[in-house]
Amino acid sequence: MMPRSIQSMCLLLILAVGLSGCAPQKARVETPLTSISSFQPVGDAIWALDFDHRFLIRSSDQGKHFAKVTPPELGKERMLSLFALNGKQAWVLDSAGNVYRTLNGGKDWKKAKGSLAVNDNIASVPSLFFLDVLHGWIQTGIQLYRSDDGGDSWNQIQSNLPFGFGLVFTSSENGWHSRTDGLFRTADGGSNWEQAMQADEETLAQQAFFFGKKHGLLLSYQAGGDQKLSATSDGGNTWKPTAAVPVLSATAGEPISLSYSLTDADHFAAYYHDDSRVLGLFVTSDQGANWQAVKLPGQTEQRVPLLLQNKVLLLHLEANGLEIESLRLDKKNADWETYRPMIVE
Question: Which of 274, 291, 300, 336 is spaced 20 to 30 Å from 259 by Cα?
């Protein structure tokens, strides 16, 4: 008969093996990410929708791996809009007018009471914005809804608001609405709007971005293909053009345009491009007072620059999936890293 001490030791070994995870586990499956839209980086997370808006994904490693976090009740509906407040809190609106909220990075979702009137039309994508975990707004067509309980319930506050493509609030009362005919402002939470800035003949549209109550950026889309950038530090009462981007040396080929990728009121990237290539890339951390030229990788065809915290990404969709080139900006002589994002299931 086995001594009691050896029996106890064997029992401990069996328990240790069982608790150590040696039991059979589901194999991790990785598949290439083949399409992406609504790419939203917030803090250390990236939220995105697939091209058809059928599933929602989230990454916590700069886009190397994504997990599917689609609301389980979504069914066959498409997601029309996504808004991520941070890495944990996000909202989506589906094609049936249902609003879903997560507070834990997509692990659990809560569906709002009732549904909103929506038009599943790509020409009028609903605007969805949350100021904080409680106060949110949605524009669907000419209807504007507001929530003061984190998206659990919604009240219609406007039934005739002309369609816009950008909605942002700096407080529960003060907000901005970007439209093709100019920039509009509200001081009563969205019930009433007045024009704050009229677009000139050379401007196709203007879109406001705010980073707090006082600081914001205004992106103007020009008829010639360029973008112009202005900044405010007084809550939008006055706007001043940001410092000029360094001039790119003349290159032969297609007409060159200047575009921006924004992170906050001080940090943004400016890039020159033609119809197929990124030709020059610059980043700033002080609204353009100082610009840092970024050495581009060998291939720049059909790349879309995206500025994150201390990092710039170049996104490129190929036939066999999405490719990302990443460069750290806080490290001298850093090299570009290339990887293909994977969906982990």
Answer: 336
How far apart CA 248 and CA 253 sit, in angstroms, is: 14
Which residues have CB under 8 Å from 285's CB, separation 6+? Answer: 266, 267
Q: For residue 162, report the phi and psi dihedrals to the nearest 5 degrees.
A: -55, 145
Work out the widest C-alpha separation in the chain, in whole angstroms. Answer: 97
Residue 331's Cβ-count burial label (10 Å; 0-12, 13-18, 19+) is: exposed
Residues 147-204 have pLDDT tens digits of: 999 999 999 999 999 988 789 999 999 999 998 888 999 999 999 999 998 877 788 8
- Angle at Cα 177 formed by Cα 192 and Cα 231, nearest 5°? 125
- Structure confidence by residue, pLDDT tens digits, 244-259: 899 887 665 667 889 9
Q: Identity (one letter) of the amino acid at 128? A: L
Positive or negative torsion for Cα 290, 231, 216, 303: negative
Distance CA 270, CA 290 (A): 12
Give the separation between CA 158 and CA 152, rounded to whole angstroms: 19
In the beta sheet, which residues pair with residue 139? 127, 144
C-alpha 197/C-alpha 113 separation (Å) is: 36
Q: Which pTM value belongs to this model? A: 0.85
